[in-house]
Amino acid sequence: MLTGIQAFEACWSAIKQSYPTSQSENTLLIQAMGQFVDQYATREEICQMLPASLSTLFDRLVDAYLNGYTPGGSFQRMSATTVAAKKLRLQRDQSINDADTFIVDAPTV
Predict the structure, then answer these.
(1) Three-class DSSP labels, the chain
(2) Model confidence at 91, in pLDDT bands (50, 70, 90)?
(3) Do 62 and 43 form a contact (C-beta atoms < 8 A)?
(4) Inter-axis angle of helices 23-37 and 52-67, to 10 degrees?
(5) Degrees (nearest 5) of the Cα angle 65, 66, 70?
(6) What is the dihedral of CA 85, 89, 90, 92, to 10 degrees?
(7) Which of 55, 93, 78 has its CA nearest to residue 7?
(8) Angle at 33 (CA atoms; ends 32, 34), nearest 5 degrees
(9) 23, 29, 48, 54 — which has fewest CB within 10 A?
């Protein structure tokens, strides 16, 4: 089973084969996924902004990203503990990336 970005990529590839989308629709889905991963908006907020036909595909991509994906199209659900741990890691990584950097001149002895 694939997880994270690898799961997203495999699911994205399967979706494109099963549900042909235009270049503009592909762009909307990729931007939506970027907003979700970067935590600019919640899953629900993003779904509301997308056309109905794309919100279903977006949900599948998010499920694959968060819960894992097995090539061939079947989704595997992770335990609630594993999902919670992944969310905490994402939040921690985001806070580390957003942390201010201070440079301190230390006196030389």
Answers:
(1) CECHHHHHHHHHHHHHHHCCCCHHHHHHHHHHHHHHHCCCCCHHHHHHHCCHHHHHHHHHHHHHHHHCEECCCEECCCCHHHHHHHHHHHHHHHHHHHCCCCCCCCCCC
(2) low
(3) yes
(4) 40
(5) 60
(6) 130
(7) 78
(8) 90
(9) 23
Q: Which amino acid would we find at residue 101?
A: T
Nearest CA to 6 among 69, 78, 100, 73?
69
* Amino acid in position 42: T
Question: Tell me, what's the pLDDT at 19?
Answer: 87
